[in-house]
Description:
This protein is α+β, with helices and mostly antiparallel strands. It has helices at residues 16-25, 32-46, 59-65, 70-83, 106-110, 139-148, 195-201, 207-230, and strands spanning 48-49, 67-68, 88-96, 115-125, 128-132, 156-158, 161-163, 185-192. The protein is built from 8 helices and 8 strands, in the order ααβαβαβαββαβββαα.
Amino acid sequence: MTVHLAETTLLDYSHPHIKQLIQERGWMRLPVKQQILQIYNYVRDDIQFGYNRADVIPASEILRDGYGQCNTKGILFMTLLRAAGIPCRMHGFTIHKELQKGAMKGWYYRLSPQEIVHSWVEVRYKDKWLNIEGFILDIPYLSKLQEKFADCPKGFCGYGAATDNLSNPAVYWDESDTYIQKEGIVQDFGIFDSPDEFFAVHRQNLGPLREAVFIHIVRHLMNRNVRKIRQGRAG
């Protein structure tokens, strides 16, 4: 399990801000189940759903941003787990871009790749690996989605969610798997010991121009759309 507890460039749990957070929250004094639950809830809700400048940024930067998406929230989640001595690894995928529709609109939706690099975290608990993905959408945002689409069929794909039960998705951890984007998966890249290893092989290939447009324009538009939903405004 040593490899699944290792610090890496992205999982920078020796960073002073990461260490300060862990100390302030008192996670090291808790039983393992409570450690996982409280770290999970923190990443899900205290780190709001939103789009960082890139997937490949260290946990300390994600913590400073205060928001993230599947890949960046996963990096932070793994960092906090490993700091607490809980083994974890990354499972890589792609998801269909339709999952982002609503958060992503108009010309930037049309120009986005058909498949988007995605990941979830596998956590070692009671001698088995659990699939943990339900931390991506913070509950205030998810609740507004549920209100907005209360009359939709059970299957839902868009606004950062892909679930067969929007009214009651598996996002509350109770020693089991959690999911919120699983139904949007296209390709399965398998398991990786760390996000560093995963992103060294699988990264979103936008090209220099589209990457610059995403960093400086598109992600800000997407974050604006996400804020509108969270605030209960039309999206």
